[in-house]
Amino acid sequence: MKQNYLSVYLLQSSLPRLRLGVGLCLLVLVWLVLVPSVRAQESVLPYRVEKMSDQSVMGDFMVGPGKFELSIAPGESQEVELFIGNRMGSTRAFSLVVEDVVGSSDTEQTVVLLGNDTGPYTLKDYLQLPVTEVTLEHGQRARIPVTVSLPADTEPGGHYGSLLVSTLTRPELEDNADNVDAGTTVVSQIGTLFFVTTPGDTTTGGELKDFALVPPEYFMTSGPVHFGLLFNNTGLIHLNPYGVIEIKNMFGEIVEIVELDPWFALPQSLRLREISWPKERLFGKYTATAKVNRGYEDIVDEQSLTFFVVDWRFVTLSFGTLVMLWWLYRVRVRRKI
């Protein structure tokens, strides 16, 4: 009997420990099951999402970089990273679409989006996206891998497209939407350009076609002075012309050198580059010479123009001063006589 009492006592005293052990085992089991599943859910996203340092509400979104320039051999691939940042103030869904682009002979259009059409320098079938839609909370930024793969039979030349990121916005929620009907939905869209060059023998050509003032006013009363450079790309790949504008005064002295950072010109297109000389206080005759490197074989085109800056107020004051001095001189001469 004593032995039975002892067994019962030992069993009762060990129950709390047994329960604690079972509880710990259950916790470990839950951790082993849930943590991998949470990590698996996080790893489902084929892109990274991070929090932006600036959480200000700007009512817009950011896409970058603005342009990728890649050189890819036939049959090879290259991966780049595109980022989308949400500053709209609320959770938004962003759609990603790829379209071909071409240049234009209209200087008002830098590039022309072709929609569903296939361009002569098509790229849209060579861009691979892990997703076509991204949902971001305000202040979040997604980093999306984009792979460019060229077929093995790709011929030398250029391939051009744009990855368009768009989201729906309701203007009645914006401060500057006073003139928009309530309920109207606007699609906001930003594009990143892709310029892909396949090495090999191809046609390269271009030149500075015109250099002029914009608008063409060659007599002015003050600065700033606005220049326009028209570049004509006649080849099959894009070019990045660059250079300087050298400005001399009426005495032949160089008074300013305006730097021309590289700008792109797509194949078979015209590209207008406008740049200003911000100096306002000018006087006399000036000669500006544009020296533009075509972006290949170190060929430089030069064109010059002449303009005059005359402040009519200064001319009028000077003329009035001369008349007054002449009148005083005549009066003095008459008094001597």
What does this molecule look like?
With 337 residues, the chain is α+β, with helices and mostly antiparallel strands. It folds into two domains: 151 residues, Immunoglobulin-like, CATH 2.60.40.10; 108 residues, Immunoglobulin-like, CATH 2.60.40.3880. It contains two helices and 19 strands. The strands form four sheets. Strands 3, 5, 6, 8, 10 and 11 form a six-stranded mixed beta sheet that branches. Strands 1, 2, 4, 7 and 9 form a five-stranded antiparallel beta sheet that branches. Strands 13-19-18-15-16 form a five-stranded mixed beta sheet, with no helix packed on it. Strand 15 and strand 16 form a beta hairpin. The longest helix has 43 residues. It is elongated, with a radius of gyration of 35 Å.
Key traits:
337 residues; alpha+beta; Immunoglobulin-like; 2 domains; 5-stranded antiparallel beta sheet; 2 helices; 20% helix
Q: Globular, elongated, flat, extended or rod-shaped: what is the shape? A: elongated
- Strand fraction equals 35-45%
Q: How many distinct folded domains?
A: 2
Question: What proportion of the residues is helical, as a percent range?
Answer: 10-25%
Average pLDDT confidence is 85
Class by SSE composition: alpha+beta
What is the helix/strand order? Answer: HEEEEEEEEEEEEEEEEEEEH
- Uncertain parts: 37-42, 170-184
Query: What's the Cα radius of gyration?
Result: 35 Å
Query: What is the CATH C level class of the largest domain, in words?
Result: Mainly Beta
Q: Could you tell me the CATH topology label of the largest domain.
A: Immunoglobulin-like
Number of helices, where a helix is a run of at least 4 consecutive DSSP H or I residues: 2
Largest sheet: 6 strands, mixed
* Total count of strands: 19
